[in-house]
Structure formats: structure tokens, C-alpha cells
Amino acid sequence: MIPLLDLKRQYATIEPQINQAVKEVFEKQAFILGSEVEAFENDITEKFQTGHAIGVSSGTDALLLSLMALEVGEGDEVITSPFTFFATAGVIHRLGAIPVFVDIEESTFNLNPDALEEAITERTACIIPVHIFGQMADMEPIANIAKKHDIPVVEDAAQAIGAWRKIKGRRAYAGTLGETGCFSFFPSKNLGGAGDGGMVVSGNPDLAEQVRRLRVHGSFPKYYHHTVGINGRLDALQAAVLRVKLKFLDEWTEKRREHARFYRELYDMYQLDRFGVSFPKEDSDVYHVYNQFTGRFPERDTLLEYLKEEGIGTAIYYPLPLHLQPCFAYLGYREGDLPHAEKAAREVMSLPIFPELTEEEQEIVVGEIRSFYER
Ligand SMILES: Cc1ncc(COP(=O)(O)O)c(C=O)c1O
User: Fold this and answer.
1) How many CB atoms lie within 10 A of CB 27?
2) What is the pTM of this model?
3) Torsions phi, psi for 296 (to 5 deg)
4) Which residues line ligand 1 (CB under 6 A)?
5) Site to substitute for ligand 1 among 135, 159, 183, 291, most atoms within 8 A of C-beta
6) Residue 156 burial (10 A CB sphere; 0-12, 13-18, 19+)
7) What residues contact 268, with CB distance under 8 A and at least 6 apart?
8) Which of 24, 81, 95, 333 could form a disulfide with 111 if both were Cys (CB 3.0 to 4.6 A apart)?
9) What CATH number has the domain spanning 249-374?
10) Model confidence over 25-42: pLDDT tens digits?
11) CA–CA distance, 259 with 265 (Å, rounded to integer)
């Protein structure tokens, strides 16, 4: 069996540190916010030089709180990618705003900046680029267009912690270019907690303060409310676990990148191009962190079944683009409106790429893919 993700292998490498950190929280019996969460927020601001970091209850709530802090609401339009996890658009809808989907680039699966400007109207209140699968969207043109129209950008960096892109000769980390950046610590993420968790990062002190208040029901000072927020706090237990794991993030990310390189070697060796398979492309000047290794595969659904029978775990992220989701039928999109997202949904499949995966396992995965096409 080669699973898509095996968190037990990761836990085995850090078990004493995790257990100790959890024990310390239990000894203090302080579970809500407090020094663990603050220390973790400081770790993140230091690592990514973000100015402010606010630990929140999930990646979804990081996005929701960002939009709330920007006062996005009823009737506003928010532009995003149709090829992302549902949460990106779900939070827009929840605030009474209207998701506006812009098609993706064929090569990276990220929002296509060339298609962005024509989607902007006088009602556009925010743009949410998503750094899908761990590769940053093309932020320079996106930021330029946003600036020209004076529209704030919220980065959905849920899958991309630690990713960067060279902009004007400097490394710009995922999450640090928008008004806010949103991370998810869902267990399958590159930095995954022991449950749900998320983080909003921002260089804007006023916006950060507003997120901080909104995560505690909008309370400031305590028990006084000028705005209505949510219960959106990161747990102290999650912060304790995540602080241990953060120390290993760079090393784990490098392993993911090594696996991506080895997959590409195997691709050449097994001549998968002959069968029309393509493996993910890295844009130039990017540091892809491979939360997912997502390629395109002819006869994708039959291949997935075949690999499942051979004991190989894969997944389809995502089988139906958001503009065609039944709950968004009211938006009036039709099949064919966003052809690149729709094509990706038909063709993509993600292969195992977790840090503890072995080369032998990768050889089996690619060998089985080859056997399928030669059957
Ligand atoms: C792109 C994207 N956005 C948002 C989220 C939401 O994060 P969470 O599951 O922590 O709420 C996720 C992950 O699940 C995601 O992959």
C-alpha cells in the first residue's frame, strides 16, 4: 500500500516533542489563545517577516475574517479562481457577496492574470488569488491590476506556506503580498495541526487589529462590541503542536521538492509523454512547495481505479470547478464559460508526495502508471 498521505510516518519522527508540547498545555490547563498562540504568531511573523500574524480557527475562517475586516458584504463582487477548494468561494457567498470566477492558466492551474482585468467592475471589492497545490500565482501582474483599480488582494495561501516567487529580484513569500494572506493548518497541509487551524498574516496594522477583534466576536475592549465578529480562535493545543512542526517545515518542504524532481526523472525514464501524461510545471523563479503533485492523465478515472486496485492512493483535486457547483447555479455560469478550469477538472490527478515517501515507492507509482497505459 502506498497512501496519498501518511501522517503516521511523520508523527513517528517527532513523537516525543509533540507529546511533550501537548503535555505542557495540559499541565497549564490554558486552552484558549494565551502564550502558546502568541508564541506561534511570533514564530510566523519572524519566519515570513509579515509584521502581524493572527492565529485563527481554520483556513476558511482566515479567509472569512480577512473579508470581514475589509468590510466586504452584500452585493460586493469578489474575484477568485474556479479551480480551488470550495472554502475560497464559500466565504464570499456567506458574506452576501458575489463570487466572480476568472479562468486559470493551463500550465500552473493558477488564476490567469491576463483574464483578470476584464472581470473588474465598479462593484469589485476584493481579489483572492489562490496559490494552488503549493505554487504561487503570478502575483506581480495581479498586484499591479489590483493597485490600478484600488482593490485589495487577499491571498489564499492555504496550500502554499513557505512558497515564494522572485519579484524584482527578491523572494516574496506566499501570503505576504496581499492586504492579508491566509494559511490553513488542516492536517494534510505542509504545516498541519492535530485538527483545524489557520492564520491571517498582514503588513497592515489596522487590518490586523480588526482581524484580531473579529476573531473574538468583534469584542474590544472585552465584552464591548462595535462590530459583530465570530468565534474564530486558534486553540492553544494546536499552536503547541504547530510550533514543534514549524521547526521541520523547511526540511519537509525540501523533501517534497526532491520527490517532485525524482517523479520528473521517472517520467522521462518511463517516457510517459508518449501516453499524453503531463507532470506539473514550475513557473520560472518560483519555489513550489508541492502540497500536491498534480498532473494531467488521459483516461484519468480508469487510471485512478487501476491504481486503487494496486494499492496506490491518489486523489482528484478538484473534480468539479466552482462555477459549475450546484450551489452557485444562481450565478448563471454555464459549461464552457471557463474552459481551462473545466479541462483541468476532467484531467487532473494528484500523486503521493508527502516528505516520508521513499524513492522505491515513487518508482512503483510511476511504474504502475506506465503499466496501465501499456495494458
Ligand atoms: C485553497 C484552499 N483554501 C482554503 C482552504 C480552507 O482551509 P481549512 O480547511 O483550514 O478551513 C483550503 C484547505 O482545506 C484550501 O486548500
Assistant:
1) 8
2) 0.98
3) -115, 135
4) 58-60, 84-85, 87-88, 130, 156, 158-159, 184, 186, 196, 198
5) 159
6) buried
7) none
8) 81
9) 3.90.1150.10
10) 999 999 999 999 999 999
11) 10
**H helices within 191-230, ranges in order?**
205-214
The answer to whether the bond into 318 is cis (omega within 30° of 0) is yes
Query: Residue 198 Cα, ligand 1 centroid: separation in angstroms?
Result: 9
- What would the pLDDT profile of 81-131 be if each residue is shown by its tens digit? 999 999 999 999 999 999 999 999 999 999 999 999 999 999 999 999 999
- What confidence tens digit (pLDDT) does each residue in 186-205 have? 999 999 999 999 999 999 99
Q: Which helix (H) or strand (E) holds 340?
A: helix 339-347
Closest ligand 1 atom number to CA of residue 196: 10
Q: How would you class 186 by CB atoms within 10 Å of its CB: exposed for 0-12, middle for 13-18, buried for 19 or more?
A: buried
Q: What residue ranges do the domains of the chain occupy? A: 7-246, 249-374
Identify the pLDDT of residue 246: 98
Q: What is the C-alpha to C-alpha distance for residues 288 and 245, in angstroms, rounded to an integer? A: 19
Per-residue pLDDT at 284 exceeds 90: no
pLDDT of 157 above 90:
yes
